[in-house]
Each structure stands twice: as structure tokens, then as C-alpha cells.
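Good morning,

Both structures are done.
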Amino acid sequence: MSAIRLGAVEYLNARPLVYGLERDPRFTIRYDIPSQCARLLHEDAIDLGLIPSIEYLRGPRPYGILPDLAIASRGPVASVALYTRRDPRDIRTIAMDTSSRTSVALAAVIARRAFGIAPEPVPMAPDLEVMLAKADAALIIGDNALLLDHDAVRARKIDLGESWTEATGLPFVYAFWAGPPHRVTPGEVRALQQARDRGTAHYAEIARDYFTTRVEYQRVGEQYLRDNIQYRLGWEEMEGLRTFYSYAAEQGLVVFDGELRIYAED
């Protein structure tokens, strides 16, 4: 049988979900930015994608969500943020990191619901100074946001994970494994869950291997994985996901029928 083709996000926060899988002959893994993971799954170039959660509703066919596996946060996430030199209610344009999909939708939802604004999105590469020269605020995600010194450019950082939980009382789900139904077996689902369990027991090692030459980044990365990111898709995460989809649908960003299709574990 052919190996399952996995498309994983290249950022640090995804590494605990794929811990040890590169040595498992049942899987092959490629790493890409989140928007590329989604595109590859939509094009059937991979079997499972660690896709931005908003892309679950944008595929050409219904997807199943693998159970109890996600990249999520409750409160500050540290790696998904708006940066601005303005009062948030005065923001009229947001430079949007083109590597993102879910965070773009989350920024639009938070802008409307928390700040009462509907800023114009301006797609751009993630360079904060350039972005703030072109727009009132900038959305940056992933490692770029985690390691960014926003004080150096006199910008305020608005953590969107924190803003979401303050507004809803719920976790936010940024990404999860998804793919067409029946693409993987229950045994392969369990293997992915076991990889998560191993990965969440080795945060220091993962951060050290990821930031091989920067000790100061290794410390930041370990703390981030331990304190900011969660890797389970439980009842509250599912409720957070439904709430996000409902809010995004209200703003015309997606169509949501209220159903979340989960792969059967048995």
C-alpha cells in the first residue's frame, strides 16, 4: 500500500503533531505555509492536510476532521497578532499576511465584533515595517509573529487568541488534520494521535531541533509550545470552532451548515 501523504504546516507549533512520523513508513510528510497546505489538499495532491480551520469550509468536497488533534489556544497564542500604531477603532486597512487563511478570517471577525470596524484587507508578505507603511495595521502569524520585536518599531501587539477568548470564553482552533472520508484507517488515525502524545512530551527537544543555532529562540519556543499552544480537539474546542464558523458566516466569509464531520476512530 502507498504511504499516506501528509501536508504539515512548517511552523514550530505544528512539530509536536508530527513527532517521529518521518520515521514511520506509513506516512510521507511535506512542510508548507498554511495557505499552501490548504491548496494541496483541495487539489488532492496530499491525503491529509494540517489545514487552516477556515479551509474546512472551502474545499471542493466534504472533508472529515481527525478526532482529538488540533493546533489551538485558550487565551494568548503569541503567534497570531495584529500590530498597529493606531487606536484599534481607527483602523481602516489591515495588511494581511499572505501565508495565512484562518487568521485573516479571525482578524476580520475580531475587528467587527471587538472593535466595531470593517477594515479593508491588503494582502502582503509578512514584513511589519513595510506593512505598516502601507496600512493602518498588520496581521502576522507563525514564527514571524512569535519572534517579532514589535516595540522596536513602536507598534502595539494585539494577540488575536487572547482577543477571541476574551470575547467568547472559548478556545480558538487554528488548524487540524483533515481529508476526504475513508482516506486513512483507524490505525493510522491512532498513529497520528500517538505522534501528538510523544511530541507534547518533548517540547524542549523540538524547540532545540527547530532553532538549532539560536539558544534564546529555543527558550522562547519551548515556553510557547508548553504555555500557549494546545493540541487536543475536545468539546470546548469544537464549540469554539462552531462559534468561529458561525461568526465568519455572518460576515459572508464562508458558508456553514452547522455540521462538523469527524472521522470515526473505530
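Second structure follows.
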Amino acid sequence: MKKLILEMRLNEYKLKSANANIPYTPDEIAQAAFESRKAGASIVHFHARENDGAACFSPEVYAECAAKIREKCDILIDVTLGQVNVAGDDKRLAHIEFMAKSAKTKPDFAAVDTGSTNVDAYDYVKKEFKSTHRAYVNSVDTCIHLINKMQLWGVQPSISCWTIPFLRTADALIDCGVLAVPATLQIVLCDGGILGGHPNTPQGMLSMYEHMPLDKKIEWFVCAKEGNLMSAAAMAIQLGGHLSPGLGDYGYPEMGSPDNGHLADAFATFSRQMGREVATPQETRAMIMAG
């Protein structure tokens, strides 16, 4: 079987109250990347943060995080565009453009979501929505702009798909030549009251997989926002997919609230037990990177 690519989603916007090991500072993010690499991960995805955990959108801080990761190890770097927290296509790209000016800080990948959805969470205990206004909007025009700019700067778009329409749009973007291949497509499963994606279950993942454009040159991943990825991971491993767990999505209290390195080790071990060795960064680059 082909090797499995393990990407660790280090922090997103989660606070240490969810897991004390969630990294905030550039040094913490770099150390989490290093520990993840030692455990078998070949990609890390991160969000820049202030020292108190608040969201940070400074291009300089993003560049500092990337530089410190590169000083520690050879893991590939995937960064966010800020989801609903940054308005305006060019503002969402500002840190990518800044980072791409230097080989020491240029990310290998940056996330593009090829569709729109609601990201409000519902509280099933209180029987009320935690918010009612968080619409994550990505028009086709926006997707084309983000992809074109990234590819111009030598940063590969990492496509995230919350629902089947996202997958169909990604397929069309490949078909018309906007999105270069090989391409990476990530299934975003949702739990913990987030309703904007398919359920974090093997069945939820399979319903997405059935619409994956496997006739194109792609590799696909699965992650789970607000939930344990293990059940869906088992099916993804069997079907030839790749994994993107991490403390940014879920604290894994049932596993003793591990750090990202120990979590990476758990998923790498699970993959090996199912017959798939994990890929190194060099092997990952050969599998999924254009050029």
C-alpha cells in the first residue's frame, strides 16, 4: 500500500483551556512541529497567535513561526488564511505574500476552501446556537483569486472541502486548469455542534469520498473539527486517504490530553498497524507537490 501522509493541525484558534499543550508562541509552535516530525508527521498546519492565545494576523509573526520551524526540522509547512476572521481577499493573502519573499519563511502550502458554509455551533445541552452570524463565504471568484496568487508565489493551494459542493467546485477548478495538479483535497468533518460540514463519522466521510474526483491527479486527506478523528481515520486509511488530526481541532481528553507529538505518534502507529507506513517530508513532497 502507498505510504500515508500525516499532517498535524497544531493549534487553529483553540485555547489552552481545551488542552494545555496547544501552542501559542512561535517557539511553542516550532517545538510542536519538531515533536510532530519526530513522531512521523510530514506536514504541519498552524495559525499565528498572540502570547495570550488571541488570534494574530501579523505577517511578521507568521514568518517568525515558519523560520523557527525550519530551523528545527524539515517538516513541510501549511498555513491558514484565517477563515471568517479576516475580510477581503488580499488581506487574507497578506501574510502569504510576505512569507513567500524568503525561502526561509515561504510556506509549502496554504489553505483554500472551495465553497461557503455556516460555521456557527449549536449547543445541544442548552438547545441554542452559540452564534448565528458566522457565515464562511468563498465565491468562485475568490477561490480563483486566492489560487492564482498562491501559485504565482510558488505556494501550493491546500484545498479544504466541507460539503459535496466544495468537492465539485474543486473538481471544476482542476478541470478548467485554474488549480494545478497534483492537488490535495481535504475532507473537513464536523462534530461538537458545528453543523457546516458532514458528520464526523465513517458514514459522513464515506458520503464525501463517493464524490471525490479520483479521476484527477489528487491525494485526499480527512480532518475532524471538534471531534476525535480515529473512527473516520480507519476508513480513510483503508481507502488510500491521508490524515490531518491535531489539537487545533480537538483536545483528545480520552487520550489523556496529549501534546501534538504524542498525538502524531498515536495516528502514525495506528496507520502502521493497518498496514501503511507514514511518509517522510521528502516522500510527501514527491507525492503531492507540483513542479
